[in-house]
Amino acid sequence: MENKNESTTHEENRISICDVMKDGTSEITQKLESQVPTFVQNFSDWYTEYLHMYDDLFGTCYMAEKEFFDKLNLDQKMLKELKRNFDILKKTYLDGIDMSTNFFNAYTKIRIDAIKSFDNYVHVLMESYAKNLSQYNEYIKQFK
Which pLDDT score, from 0 to 100, does residue 142 have? Predict the structure, then answer.
């Protein structure tokens, strides 16, 4: 038979499955969230290097054009058609970026709404569970 001190100590040392899961999940989520600024900065640095590389590449291209391509005397109609084709390709890429961004924004909103709906559902479920448990406990007390 446990005495009151042992019972109190037992309750103080008791671990709840909800606490274990909540603490672990919260810690993981907070760790991921803390990495977002680093991720964004790395992504920004990566694209800065891309832009720098392209600026260098096309700067070199202008020099090569003066040295080599101008001497080829390329047909301006062909160059204008090349530019038109490149502009179509560029527009396709830019539209794709916009569509991807819009999709990700919508996807994120849907996920957030789903999480909020689940959270509301769990609250209703737990309130119902607590109410039923309370009623059950009252019913059991009648037979004690």
Answer: 84
